[in-house]
Amino acid sequence: MARAATPTSRRIAERYGTPALAVEMTDPDSIKEFVAELTGLSGGIDLLVNNAGVNIPKPAIEVTAADWDTVFDTNLRGSFFLSTALARTWLDMERAGSIVNVASQAGIVAIEERSAYGTSKAGLIHLTKILALEWAPHRIRVNAVAPTFVRTELTESTLSRPDWAAELLDRIPLGRFGEPEEIVGAVAFLLSDAASLVTGHTIAIDGGYTIR
Q1: CB-CB contact of 63 with 109 (8 Å)
Q2: What is the domain extent for residue 158?
Q3: What is the reported pTM?
Q4: 156 domain-assigned
Q5: How many structural domains is the chain composed of?
Q6: Recorded GO terms, molecular function (predicted)?
Q7: 207-211 contacts: CB < 8 A, separation 24 or more?
Q8: Kind and range of the H or E element at 168?
């Protein structure tokens, strides 16, 4: 069955009056049950944002098989099976849909200590193109965003290191890190009818990091 509600899912449910559901992204059976349960509760799903992700920063020579599998199972494998499970319901119902994958600038340019993470995000960017191509005849759009370093609880330990933060800022032409709402705006655009002719693309929200 789908995972029991987590503190995060409960906070979201309380804020928006939605069901407090959670899914185990590394388990295809959990994903199928989650999609079926949510579809039953809502009468149908129109939009999906694949935002689950994990990173284990290490020099490549120190990355273990377990590290690699953990990163790929969540970032790429999980996003693939959640997308296909939902798309299957859209195809059965002849219903249009829109998917946005949250990739990363690390999937476009090389960043040290991100071998597993960057490769998984590069795979997600290419997967976006493949799914967009396959599902376009069924009115299912698939796009992605590729953020730079964004100030969140998860990135606090990285961005609070003065030496590392200064080096990263030197690589960003706009000279600052991203804020969560700046990613939200691009995701909302891609999900909306304003982007009804956009599919298979990745928007880099990176302050110019990937220009060079």
Answers
A1: no
A2: 45-208
A3: 0.94
A4: yes
A5: 1
A6: 2-deoxy-D-gluconate 3-dehydrogenase activity
A7: 207/148, 207/172, 207/173, 207/174, 207/175, 207/176, 207/177, 207/178, 208/172, 208/173, 208/174, 209/105, 209/109, 209/148, 209/171, 209/172, 209/173, 210/105, 210/108, 210/109, 210/146, 211/173
A8: helix 162-170
CA distance linking residue 30 with residue 4, whole number of Å: 11
| CA angle 106–46–22, rounded 5-degree value | 65
CATH assignment at residue 67: 3.40.50.720
Residue 210 burial class via C-beta count within 10 angstroms: exposed 0-12, middle 13-18, buried 19 and up: middle
User: In sequence order, which residues have a C-beta less than 8 Å from that of residue 23 and are 6 or more positions away?
Assistant: 2, 3, 30, 31, 34, 82
Query: In the structure, what pLDDT confidence band is assigned to residue 8 with cuts at 50, 70 and 90?
Result: confident
Helix, strand, coil percentages for the chain (3-state, nearest 5): 55, 10, 35
C-alpha span between 6 and 14 (Å, rounded): 12
Task: Give long-range contacts, CB 8 A cutoff, 24+ apart: 20-23.
Answer: 23/82
- 16 as an active site residue: the answer is no
Share of the chain above pLDDT 70, in %: 98
Helix and strand numbers, DSSP H then E, in the chain: 8, 4
Q: Which amino acid is at 193?
A: D
Selecting among 34, 117, 149, 177, the annotated active-site residue is 117
User: Is 91 within the bounds of a domain?
Assistant: yes
Element (H, E) at 8: helix 7-16
Does 5 reside within a domain? no
Whether 4 has a pLDDT exceeding 80, the answer reads no
